[in-house]
């Protein structure tokens, strides 16, 4: 589906940004991965790591807690 393709592209971009230490880009791309796609969990994990790295600790905890409830 189109949503799945868009999510896959955004996940790959987020993953590549993570590998390069570009955490602002990780946050931009990871948040565009749709819930319910196979990439959502991994994208949210990358998002949480980026949030911690950017000192957004409370937000990172919320991101991780929301995954635990899935």
Overview of the molecule:
30% of the residues are buried. This protein has four helices and no strands. The protein is 74% helix and 0% strand. The radius of gyration is 11 Å and the shape is flat.
Record keyword descriptors for this entry:
70 residues; mainly alpha; 4 helices; flat
Topology overview:
Layout: H1 2-19, H2 23-30, H3 40-53, H4 57-68
Our Rg estimate from Cα atoms comes to: 11 Å
| Low-pLDDT residue spans | none
* Share of helix, binned: over 70%
How far is the N terminus from the C terminus? 22 Å
State mean pLDDT (0 to 100 scale). 94
Main sheet overview: none
| General shape | flat
The number of helical elements comes to 4
Strand percentage: under 5%
Overall strand count:
0
Taken in chain order, the helices and strands follow as HHHH
Q: Structural class of the helix and strand makeup?
A: mainly alpha
Summarize the model shown.
The chain has 70 residues and is mainly alpha-helical. The chain has helices at residues 2-19, 23-30, 40-53, 57-68.
